[in-house]
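Thread: quick sanity check before group meeting

JM: Hey all, I'm pulling together slides for Thursday and realized we never actually wrote out the predicted structure for the chain we discussed last week. Dropping the sequence here so it's in one place. If anyone has concerns about the input, flag it before I start.
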Amino acid sequence: MAARGRENSISAIVLSGYQMGMMAVDNRMRPMTGMATILDTRPGETLSTLEPHLHRLGIYRRTGCPPFAQYQLARLWWMNQANPNIVRKCRFLLGIKEYIAWKLCGEIATEPSLASATQMMDIRKMKWDEKALELAQVDGRKLPPIGRSDQILGHLGKSASREMGLSAGIPVIPGVYDGGALALGLGVLERGTGVINLGTSAMYRICVDSPITDKSGMRLQTYAFLPGLWLTGAGVNNAGIAVEWFLKTFGVNGHNQMEEMARLARRGPEVPLMFPYLTGERDPRIGSTARGVIAGLRTDHDRGALALATLEGAAFSLRFIHEALRDNGVSVRNIVSGGGGTRMKFWMGLIASILRRPFAVSRSSQPGLVGCGIIGFKAIGEYPDFKTASRHMVGPASGVPCFRDGRMENRFARYRAGLADIYPKLPISA
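JM (edit): ok, ran it. Output follows.
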């Protein structure tokens, strides 16, 4: 329900939602499956049978998506083997945001930031990729049309308006995926500004005005964003999830205690290296079926050493993304971070030191909502363009001090070498 007393002040509904969700619906728009999310690992069961047909480098160059079992392409490949009748008989294959949009205004459509995280959209032509559709064995008409994120998709219908306590006829705007909205709210439209969202997973992205794919591998994931703009960088599956694993496994009472243990360990002898890939990773050098590894563990290491190693491991993963951007000519001058992980001040300082860039934390408690507001106000004409809206709406950020620790670069060099030894590099075919 809308907040009482504020119903008449709402001028638009802007949607956001997670990427890589998928649900099949029938001709009456009734769900035929549950809503699969990025946490659904079943497509990994058949990924090895997809790979010989995939032509990794070709599909990566077209879609911006490296091999990853949770993309819709791999999910449809799995579904065609597990239950082919679903894909054959369904009317649409929709993500959660697209399904809710239909519930609100009766229109079926998606937008580029969600479509390009399927591994099935050509990020240059901005349409569904024919070769990906052929691999997935799906008629392109079962995927929603790709429109603009800032278009007025439709207007709130009577049934939805009654349930929400709002007036019928309010414009419904598709918006962008959750990480894109957060990036907008952190100021990603300011040139040279990289943004990091630190939550259960993490993302490190920067806005570019042409689609970029990695020249020497597939380290970058590039998604279409706003009209004429793309987000490039990568996601890290294991950020806050590795922290929560540590807290639960070692009986630590909250983030503050973990950080204090890590702070004390940093002043002591060398700690082990933690490769925190507990749920696999999107980085193709690691792979979606990888497992976590602790290297260099000794009898004199305690929980504090492992706390520091866990926090470092996630930070080193962000450093790999930073280097991939640099290697592809993308200059990051400063970084702004948001998300629940930013409450861990020691971790923020650690990341700032490892990335070696001016680093700030947003003071906004909900930068994702700010990002949705930027799209909404531009869409209804309150601001002439996204950059103007961003300059008026994005709030200040607070600087994060870097640690001065000469051992950090040596540890990162060891981490890089360990990564190559522990995780096999996946082959890249033309």
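AS: nice. Residues 285 and 426 are 6 Å apart (CA to CA). Confidence is low (pLDDT under 50) at residues 426-430.
JM: adding both to the slides.
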